[in-house]
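Protocol step 4 of 6: structure prediction from sequence.
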Amino acid sequence: MSERDSTRDDDRLVFSDEPATAESRPAGYWKVLVVDDDRSVHAVTRMILADFEFAGKGLAILGAHTVEEARTAIDENPDLALVLLDVVMAEEDSGLKLVRYIREERGNRMTRIVLRTGQPGQAPERRVIVDYDINDYKLKTELTADKLFATIVAALRSYRDLLSLDHNRRGLERIIESAASLFKLQSFNEFVSGVLTQMTSLMRLDESAMYCRTSGITAKRSGEEFVIEAAIGDYTGYVRRPIKEALPGEAIALVERALRERRSIYLPTSFIAYFMSRGGAENIIYMTSTAEIAAWDARLIEIFCANVSVALDNLYLNQEIENTQKEIIYTLGEVAEARSRETGHHVKRVAEYSKTLAVLAGMAEDEAEIVRMASTMHDIGKLAIPDAILSKRGPLDPGEYEVIKTHAQAGADMLRGSNRPIMRIASTIALEHQERFDGSGYPSGKKGDEISLYGRIVGIADVFDALLCERAYKRAWEIGDVLEYLQKERGRQFDPALIDLFVTNVDRMLEIRARFPD
């Protein structure tokens, strides 16, 4: 029998079709879809490729005998590495239509497509290669076992390289996108939590990494140890605790090495990123993965960490500016307090009472923090009041009282020129903290909700602390007498709802007073 006759006999053999199931696939595999209406082609392809392996992965061979089956397989498996596609099936151009479907309707440019045909006259090679986005064109008669092996290796190598390029592109895009988040003004806790989220996202760019578990922490030096500021995965429950309570011994050794050498260290499944700000503040990020960190991923992480380092410097600089501003604001408030002979920590206590009450009233944390700072300047207008009146012992006469009342408007005028939120709120507080809920206060006689929430909150905090303090013109009240006064003035001097919140939580206010004694 001639070689040609032998080939024809082999072509007539019928093999049972055994579609690959999830259970039979190797742990790591390349998905290959065989589309052909001849069952023997499927069987022979499976037999030839039974022990195939490339780049440490085997094959998961899926089969389709009709165009409809092929479309379903393509829709359900967007991660197909290769399609071995017959040209002529139910129609003379069935395979070519499937190529259009994959490339244009599904928008899939990654999957490699090898056309196989037994009737080259129906789809001339040159026209098909020019007109269709395919990667190879083979006659079935020329696909010996060796040539099929070589064709699949070439296709998978191309697919792998495309995946790598796409992975790298998405990684760089993620780094660029993260810059907006990294460099926006935010609290330190928001920043470090965001860094962990973005780092995790960066390490899971590969679709196959969805089963990869990532754990990590960010930590900041506090005295002689590092305290965890944010955490994910296995370390979620360790926020605000020293790293020695959370990390295993080998991770602690890695951290100590990074601190000693003042550099980042990368291992196959973990890394420690080390940062030192221009002011000397030290921070670390430790992350570990159940999957190995590829060399390019490590490079992406290095680029991302460079952005984190710059952002950290900006954050610390902003915090320094903010702390300086807060110190100036407190100092201004204390200057006004000192001029009126009110000693001790009245300004600090009023600030803390005000923030606590603001949060209890439902105000957002960041806005309540602004109220805390702005409230320190509620009496700034007293800088415009003559010393003779401010330091007078005993009751003021009507004329002197009228002068004292001008401090509200004077304070508002001093602070009104700034567009900063804290200064605008401070101006409102200075103007309205002496208004009364029933409209009998000054300087404008506002009543009820006409008085801003800021003014109503600080008005209560100011009176509460003033009554508990000894002044040149009065003795300190007992707490019971103060609470009785607040209840009596409920709905007259003070907002009833705020008074109820204040009195209900008076223990918290007394804790604040204990922290800042005169």
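Step 5 (inspection) to follow. The chain has 18 helices and ten strands.
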